[in-house]
């Protein structure tokens, strides 16, 4: 059972999301909040697996609420999935930097939202397709902002580049001719070495260090 908290300043929207989630047997709504401060308090007390977080809210907005949640040791297992009506590149970048594990527009189809919650709860990164395409284009125009961590091995760099392409562990194993368990070990090692919370942050790290370049194929063994 995936425990979900719903945060939105519009009561009608919030109620609609709650009804949708309650219709899914694998999800349990553990609380609601109408602003960022209440969202942080809810995350600390209920410790949901996933927080559906609105971005634009009065007072403390969703970005700052996300920063506080992911920085709190009491919320170590909580992932944030941002939902907004605003299709804005800067907003997406800010959400990922704040620690969000996913970003979807509110016009998302109901089944896609339910699937997204399961993906994010499992530690994967998830972005709306149009958002992903534009975000990669944005990173492609930027120079490497920092060097890759010295402790990252060459094979871990291969895995990092594959993660940045959006490949799942089994796809990475096939592309690099590695065992599935070996790939999981490499991903876990990267998260630990780089201080990344999840795969969304690994993707950002890959582009910011120049390890990932759009259109570049994954390295073969």
TrEMBL record:
Residue stretches making up the Response regulatory domain: 3-121
Record-given protein name: Two component transcriptional regulator, LuxR family
Domain HTH luxR-type: 150-210
Record flagged with keyword Transcription: yes
UniProt entry tagged with the keyword DNA-binding: yes
Organism lineage string: Bacteria, Bacillati, Actinomycetota, Actinomycetes, Micromonosporales
Record PTM 4-aspartylphosphate, positions in chain: 54
GO biological process terms held by the UniProt record: phosphorelay signal transduction system; regulation of DNA-templated transcription
Provenance organism: Micromonospora matsumotoense
Keywords: DNA-binding, Phosphoprotein, Transcription, Transcription regulation
GO molecular function: DNA binding
UniProt-listed PANTHER family: TRANSCRIPTIONAL REGULATORY PROTEIN NARL-RELATED, TWO-COMPONENT RESPONSE REGULATOR
InterPro entries to which the protein is assigned, alphabetical: CheY-like_superfamily, NreC/VraR/RcsB-like_REC, Sig_transdc_resp-reg_C-effctor, Sig_transdc_resp-reg_receiver, Tscrpt_reg_LuxR_C, WalR-like
């Amino acid at each position: 059972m995936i425990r979900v908290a719903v945060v939105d300043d519009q009561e009608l929207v919030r109620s609609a999301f709650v009804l949708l989630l309650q219709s899914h047997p694998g999800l349990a709504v553990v609380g609601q909040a109408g602003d960022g401060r209440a969202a942080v308090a809810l995350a600390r007390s209920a410790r949901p697996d996933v927080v559906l977080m609105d971005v634009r809210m009065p007072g403390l907005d969703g970005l700052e609420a996300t920063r506080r949640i992911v920085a709190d040791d009491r919320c170590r297992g909580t992932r944030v999935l941002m939902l907004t009506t605003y299709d804005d590149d800067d907003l997406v970048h800010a959400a990922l930097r704040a620690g969000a594990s996913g970003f979807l527009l509110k016009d998302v189809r109901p089944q896609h939202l339910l699937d997204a919650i399961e993906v994010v709860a499992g530690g994967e990164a998830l972005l709306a397709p149009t958002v992903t395409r534009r975000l990669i284009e944005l990173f492609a125009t930027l120079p490497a902002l920092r060097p890759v961590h010295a402790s990252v091995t060459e094979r871990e760099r291969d895995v990092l580049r594959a993660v940045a392409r959006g490949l799942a562990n089994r796809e990475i194993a096939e592309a690099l001719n590695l065992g599935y368990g070996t790939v999981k070990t490499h991903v876990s090692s990267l998260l630990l070495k780089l201080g990344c919370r999840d795969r969304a942050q690994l993707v950002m790290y890959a582009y910011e260090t120049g390890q990932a370049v759009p259109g570049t194929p994954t390295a073969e063994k």
